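Revision sheet: structure tokens.
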Amino acid sequence: MTYLYIYRLTSDTGLAPCVEDGLLSLACCKGGQIRNGKPIHTGLRYRVGAMRDGADHKTDDIYLLGTYKNKFLYLARITNIVTMYEYFSRMSKNRTDSIYSLDDGKLVRNHHLWNEGVHVDEKQNIRDIAGEYVLLSDDFTYLGKDAVFDELVDKYNAKFRETKLYKGEVAELIVAECQKYRDGKKHLPTNPLKKKCGGC
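Predicted:
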């Protein structure tokens, strides 16, 4: 089965998603929530990682489609899912999104991009960590500052701060449309910070 999750990004800086060295990672943002002062495991990363919709990246084709300012920004087929603990303990080194570290078995905000004001709010950190999983792809199209308007993508796009889920034929149709923009070129984020990247 093909599953396609579509959401709108509020900014495209190179942090979420982070595209470097042939790997796209969604390791922060799109995380959980805080209710009654407690973190709630929810959000896109948790939803996909915990297989809340029955989608398993080992047997299904799971795609993320991000739009920015109503333009097609990226499409990624999820090829691996790890916990935030796994990612930030051994996989995130030298990557722009390496903003967390393990300290005595707990994820903590480190100093990377701190001075740039990236995820320095404690509530944002709690929401990030409540997302629990990191979604990875080595099969993606990322257009960055060269994002394009596409009528089909716009038709099925999320309208608000939501994530739309499409399955089967509709998902396959949208994926095929987005594959047309795969040009094999490296595209830079729309608004990168001078020090590589920024918020999400």
